[in-house]
UniProtKB/TrEMBL annotation:
Record's GO cellular component terms: plasma membrane
UniProt name for this protein: Protein kinase domain-containing protein
SMART domains: S_TKc
Alphabetized InterPro entries for the sequence: Kinase-like_dom_sf, Prot_kinase_dom, Ser-Thr/Tyr_kinase_cat_dom
Residue ranges annotated for the Protein kinase domain, each copy included: 33-190
Record keywords, A-Z: ATP-binding, Nucleotide-binding
Pfam family, one: PK_Tyr_Ser-Thr
MF GO annotations: ATP binding; protein kinase activity
Species whose genome carries this gene: Rhizophagus clarus
Length: 190
């Protein structure tokens, strides 16, 4: 555990640090990111793309800076608890941990980056692929939803903007992920 903490550190917020430790996530110092670039703005915050500088490799990640996160940290962590419950599925976008902007002092979520964007932006490409590829994509989406439902959760914000596509350039495999589980609610609330 000492190596883990020395490599990634702590946020300085007891609530967030406890959540990170319980969920085996990481607090990632912001200086471990380079080439931070604006991608998109949504209803809940701003998404950036960055390179995460790890000891043995560099990986592309998405940085999600949420509006009012610092003010509603407890509520925010309840929402990410639902996301973490579903991460056993390869169809849910991977959550690495959290960081903090040195400019705004806002907390930021660090997730995998989907290099093809969301389904909404790729609908014209989907129309051009063959039926087997479309059915495969649909199966991957259903598998992700199934994992959410196995956890007795309902997504509550499921739309084409929350379905992400990633093309692995090495083996030319298209991956599909469900994202934005922040509004997930337990089934028993309905």
């Amino acid at each position: 555990m000492t190596y883990f903490r020395s490599l990634f550190g702590k946020s300085g917020n007891a609530i967030l640090d406890k959540f990170i430790e319980e969920k085996t996530l990481k607090w990632i110092p912001y200086n471990q990111f380079k080439n931070v670039k604006y991608l998109n703005k949504g209803g809940f915050g701003i998404i950036y793309k960055a390179i995460w500088l790890l000891k043995d490799k560099n990986i592309e990640v998405a940085l999600k800076c949420l509006n009012n996160l610092n003010e509603n940290l407890d509520e925010f962590l309840k929402e990410w608890d639902n996301h973490e419950k579903c991460m056993g599925s390869c169809r849910i976008i991977n959550l690495h941990g959290f960081t903090r902007s040195p400019d705004t002092s806002n907390y930021i979520v660090v997730m995998d980056y989907a290099n093809q964007g969301n389904l909404r932006g790729n609908l014209t490409n989907v129309i051009e692929i063959n039926w087997n590829q479309r059915l495969s994509m649909l199966y991957k989406i259903i598998s992700g939803l199934n994992e959410i439902h196995k956890q007795n959760l309902i997504h509550c914000d499921f739309h084409d903007g929350n379905i992400l596509n990633h093309m692995n350039m090495i083996n030319n495999i298209n991956k599909v992920f469900i994202s934005d589980l922040g509004l997930c609610q337990p089934v028993n609330l309905f």
